[in-house]
Amino acid sequence: MLPAGMRMNRLLCSVSLAGIVMTATSAPAPPPSLQPDLLIVNAIVRTLDDARPVTQAVAIRGNRILGVGSDAEVRALAGPAPRILDALGRLVLPGFNDAHVHFLGGGFQLAAIDLRDARTPSEFVERIERFASRLPPGGWVTGGDWDHELWPGSPLPHRKMIDAVTGAVPVFVNRLDGHMALANSAALERAGVSRNTPDPAGGIIVRDPQTGEPTGLLKDSAMTLVSRVIPSPSIEQRLGAARAATAHAARLGVTSVQDMSANEDLGVYQELDRRGELNTRIYGFWPLPQWEKVVALGVRAGFGHDRLRFGGLKGFSDGSLGSTTAWFFDPYNDAPETRGLASDEMLPEGLMRTRVERADAANLQVAIHAIGDRANHEILSIFEHVATTHDPRDRRLRIEHAQHLRPQDIARFGRSRIVASMQPYHCADDGRWAEKRIGPERARTTYAFRSLLEHGAVLAFGSDWTVAPLDPLLGIAAAVTRRTLDGKHPDGWVPEEKISVEQAVRAY
Predict the structure, then answer these.
(1) Are strands 141-146 and 281-287 parallel, antiparallel or unpaired?
(2) Which CATH class is domain 107-227?
(3) Quick check: 100 pLDDT over 70?
(4) Rama region for 89: left / alpha / beta (φ>0; ψ in -120 to 50; rest)
(5) In this model, does residue 8 exceed pLDDT 50?
(6) DSSP code of residue 447
(7) Which residues in 275-299 are b (16+ Cβ under 10 Å) and which e?
(8) Across the chain, how many H-helices and E-strands are there?
(9) Cβ 241 vs Cβ 233: under 8 Å
(10) Furthest-apart CA pair in the chain: how many Å?
(11) What is the rounded radius of gyration, in angstroms, for the C-alpha atoms of the chain?
């Protein structure tokens, strides 16, 4: 289907037809109710259908593709006065599916503070000061997506950097990977976080080594200590964020997404769909620890309709490389005191396996976040156990990110038909500094796109928006070139893992 309001200029710039295509034939013209009202002609249409991979034209009625074929075949489907769009020989592709987004959060981020490209600590502070000064009473500074790896020397931020410019305005801004955030003193006070607050399971309150006082940095599950006291947005604010997200996706040719943090936002999407304003097909995931709630509702994988479905569960096995909380077999090169953190969902030992077994038995689809090589190894083992002990079916177990793999674990994805749900833009981003964390040897099988495909894995690409930009063209470029954002790897970081444009487009 072609979402309402799709920007046709984006389509002609390469990327925006959506949905299932049927080959046009030279049969008699269909009745008026099935005649197209839009023809796209004189194009290079790459269908990604092996039966007819390249055609010239597309016939559309309303928001549905009626057929593809040669210019003559498609014109034969038309009635007396269709709109004709001449593509002038440009590329037209099916609409992109983004396999991993945080959709409503992305909509909110479009209106939130943007710290992603703040290149110095002083610029970071200045942006927070300006944003805080414009907030209404009671407002919080949230969002951010800051990246301290851009700063000279890569120093971590501290609450004292922003306390003087924010005063009583609470601030809670996350690192771009979503696994670490900075709170100012006002936010810590509202959350009741002090030197006496213990680290929660699966999280770290970063503390001053001299005084023991919190620096304001919270990692992984510790972030909930502050996030839980942030006022919830109103339904109208949530609808506004969803509206912004679906419009942004349409402009980029992203016509369907898997929202890995949909949860109760499914009701927001349902209301937007009821109003005729949802331009994106959404498959929603709930937190794996809430699997019993989903089962009690009688939901199974794929519940819903063409526009809006759910039935997936998303869990966590570890944190992120940038926050040194990704879980590895061996210590970090630049932090030898740690191997990262197993998520609180992995504790106590055996809990993750039990949840996955029971969710799978209830016909729900399970996706687990795994970044470090130990995390990926453990989740592969759990998934293999479930797939071999439960009844065979198309269960599509997914590992989200699958970033850092031991060589011996790569073949397990293809052998067990476990989906590697990966975000190639992260490769261009992390490649600037990943080797200082894990060294060149472990980096050889980092973002192993080609190796995974060669071993028969199902590769599903996404963005992890807002952690990375939603634009799929940026992800395709990262997978094909593996050039890092700092320009220091013009021939590609770990270039042997490059893939072709066609392979990258198929993964989307």
Answers:
(1) unpaired
(2) alpha beta
(3) yes
(4) left
(5) no
(6) S
(7) eeebbbbbbbbbbbeebeebbeeeb
(8) 18, 22
(9) yes
(10) 83
(11) 24
Instruction: Tell whether the model's pLDDT for residue 4 goes beyond 90.
Output: no
| Phi, psi of 59, deg, nearest 5 | -110, 130
Could you tell me how many residues make up the chain?
Answer: 508
3-state secondary structure string across 235-247:
HHHHHHHHHHHHH
Domain 8-94 has CATH 2.30.40.10: yes
Of the candidates 196, 220, 255, 225, the residue with the CA atom closest to the CA atom of residue 327: 220
* 131 burial via Cβ count (<10 Å: 0-12, 13-18, 19+): buried
Residues 6+ apart with CB under 8 A from 252: 10, 15, 96, 470, 471, 472, 473
**Topology match between the domains 8-94 and 107-227:** no
Cα gap 4→12, rounded to integer Å: 16
Q: Mean of the pLDDT values across residues 278-286?
A: 97
d(C-alpha 44, C-alpha 21), whole Å = 15
Say if strands 180-183 and 214-220 run parallel, antiparallel, or are unpaired: antiparallel
CA distance 33 to 18: 21
Q: What HEC string does 38-83 produce? A: EEEECCEEECCCCCCCEECEEEEECCEEEEEECHHHHHHHCCCCCE
Q: Where are the domains of the chain?
A: 8-94, 107-227
Q: Residue 7: pLDDT above 60?
A: no
Query: Which pLDDT value is given to residue 27?
Result: 54
Omega of the bond leading into 28 within 30 degrees of 0 (cis): no
The candidate with the shortest Cα–Cα distance to 115, out of 92, 149, 90, 70, is 149
* Mean pLDDT on 253-277: 95
CB contact at 8 A, 92 and 44: yes
In this predicted structure, what is the pLDDT of residue 13? 36
Mean pLDDT over residues 138-147, rounded?
A: 92
